[in-house]
TrEMBL record:
A GO cellular component annotation in the UniProt record: cytoplasm
Protein family (similarity comment): Belongs to the class-III pyridoxal-phosphate-dependent aminotransferase family. HemL subfamily.
SUPFAM superfamilies: PLP-dependent transferases
Listed NCBIfam families: hemL, PRK00062.1, PRK12389.1
Identification of the protein by name: Glutamate-1-semialdehyde 2,1-aminomutase
Length: 427
């Protein structure tokens, strides 16, 4: 497969765009380097690069492209927005229609607010939790990603239930000490942290199903324990559903799990591919937000007509019967085929799957927390990634990023993918 034009463009990008990419996860640094493939066009489950190569897309833009590229229903909605005005800076009916649609699908949302990214949605939830409780500390879980604002770029301290330290240059130490990071799926560590800091904790921020070190489901009873202790100590539960909302069924993950978080952050899928974030939750908590309450959140582009109409159209597609069942069915075929190929070629992997999303880990350990995901073989994954790319299969360039199916993938795509996996493992 020839990548000459991608390589030339990447060299040019390096001259003008820091690192040649507009988000670090797009670089191939974690897979042994090289020029990231430059795409020009997408349709359905495929996209094409500048050199004319076609790929089956399992990146789905890190989640949002759940209906594939250029879905006609969403394209029509975006075209309508382009023709009738993409931004007014005033209320529109679209945002009311979309808010109602989200609330119908996710009954825990008494009130919602739209903004422009997952980062903004989570950032505001943290502020609202602090404003509502009058407390400052936040508990989060190792390996869960919540965007790039200061409070969530904090790593675990050096021992159990210690305060955090900055995970990025530029994050003040004072900010990091307001954040406590504990391992996912570890009741004991969470309990310890609450015993030590619980009365100062404003919010517990969690991905109810982790989508940021592959796909990791909570142990039975883990989230229930988190919710029970949050209640006992008067801290709010904040579910980061930026990846999970409308990924596994028509609604939120917490609905599937039977939980009632105080606040929910969303993004990705709900924008139909356009920039979006949204947060919502319990009425009393949401009424802390300006103009009703003292917690400020605003946005020039917030609730813009283009994102609203694309989002509504996307949910309309996802509402059709059988959509999630088909992604689950194809996911199961991929899981079965990949595991069979790993056996055939003696390649040690484990695989976590929930419906149309899964992750392959180069390890013999079932991954249930971040440490286990971190300890998988990145060098092997890097080789796998490049072999798959050479066969026209595009994955995220990270050893524990999820593969996402879309409504447009077919059984023929699965077969083509499994042939590529067989080849990659044989190498
Ligand atoms: N939360 C989660 C769970 C995410 O996966 C992401 C993005 N990967 C974010 C928040 C941040 O969203 P955005 O990139 O839209 O700011």
């Amino acid at each position: 497969m020839n990548h000459t034009k991608s390589e030339q463009l990447h060299a040019e990008a390096l001259e003008h765009i820091v690192g040649g990419v507009n988000s670090p996860s797009r670089s191939y640094k974690a897979v042994g380097g090289g020029a990231p493939v430059v795409m020009v066009r997408g349709k359905g489950a495929y996209f094409w690069d500048v050199d004319g190569n076609r790929y089956i897309d399992y990146l789905a833009a890190y989640g949002p492209i759940v209906t594939g590229h250029g879905h006609p229903h969403i394209a029509k909605a975006i075209a309508h927005a382009a023709e009738t005005g993409v931004l007014f800076g005033t209320p529109t009916e679209h945002e009311i229609k979309f808010a109602k649609k989200l609330k119908e699908a996710i009954p825990t949302l008494d009130k919602v607010r739209f903004n422009n990214s997952g980062t903004e949605a989570v950032m505001t939830c943290v502020r609202v939790a602090r404003a509502f409780t009058g407390r400052t500390k936040i508990i989060k879980f190792a390996g869960c990603y919540h965007g790039h604002f200061d409070q969530v770029l904090v790593a675990a301290g050096s021992g159990p239930a210690t305060l955090g330290s900055p995970d990025s240059a530029g994050v003040p130490h004072a900010v990091a000490t307001e954040v406590i990071t504990v391992p996912f799926n570890n009741k004991e560590q969470f309990t310890l942290a609450m015993e030590k800091w619980g009365n100062d904790v404003a919010g517990i921020l969690i991905e109810p199903i982790v989508g940021n070190f592959g796909i990791v489901e909570p142990h039975k009873g883990f989230l229930e324990h988190v919710h029970a202790l949050a209640k006992e100590y008067g801290a709010l539960t904040i579910h980061d559903e930026v990846i999970t909302a409308f990924r596994f069924h028509y609604g939120a993950a917490h609905t599937m799990l039977g939980l009632t978080p105080d606040l929910v952050a969303m993004g990705k899928v709900i924008g139909g591919g356009l920039p979006i974030g949204a947060y919502g939750g319990r009425k009393e908590v949401m009424e802390t937000v300006a103009p009703l309450g003292p917690a400020y959140q605003a946005g020039t582009m917030a609730g813009n007509p283009a994102s609203m109409q694309a989002g509504i159209a996307c949910l309309e597609v996802l509402q059709q019967p059988g959509i999630y069942e088909e992604m689950d069915r194809l996911g199961a075929l991929l899981e079965e085929g990949i595991l069979a190929a790993s056996k055939k070629h003696n390649v040690t992997i484990t695989l976590n799957r929930l419906k149309g999303a899964f992750a392959i880990y180069f390890t013999d350990v079932k991954v249930e927390n971040y440490e286990q995901a971190e300890n998988t073989d990145g060098e092997k994954f890097g080789r796998f990634f490049k072999l798959m790319l050479s066969q026209g299969i595009n994955l995220a360039p990270s050893k524990y990023e999820a593969w996402f199916l879309t409504t447009e993938h077919t059984e023929a795509d699965v077969e083509e993918t499994l042939k590529a996996v067989d080849y990659a493992f044989s190498q």
